[in-house]
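ok trying again, last paste got cut off:
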Amino acid sequence: MRKATYSALGDRPVKHKASISALLLILAIMAFAYFPAHAKDTYATTHLGEFRGSTIDGVDRFLGIPYAKPPVGALRWMPPKPISQAWQGQRNAKEFKKACVQGAKPTMAKGSQEDCLYLNIWSPAVELSSKALSKNSPNNAKPELKPVMVWIH
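nice, full thing came through this time. structure:
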């Protein structure tokens, strides 16, 4: 005789594992659909150009910011060289770049690359109202200084 499996929510037997899998899949899709709706674009300007990052739950995120020229070709095994030329337009800073090659294996690990000199920056979100951006503003649109976390990989 086959025993019935009971759910944690009651005394009804769970007859189909596919039902549970389908429910978990639906919940996962709903979670992924929920989070991007709360992200909004945020911008930062440097001497090299403008970055478009994202603000999620009160935190500004700028991911994949280059801090040196890629160490490939003639620059391989050399000290990092500064980026000397600004780019045109906005640079997308919403996604992580690939990780650096690591480990004892001579082959590159899956998902890694030698072009990996990037910063990931998180900071409390800075909101500037149109009043704060006014040239007549007493603080001249300077936001309050806040902590910043920088991750160099």
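cool. Helices lie at 17-37. Residues 129-135 have pLDDT under 50 and may be disordered.
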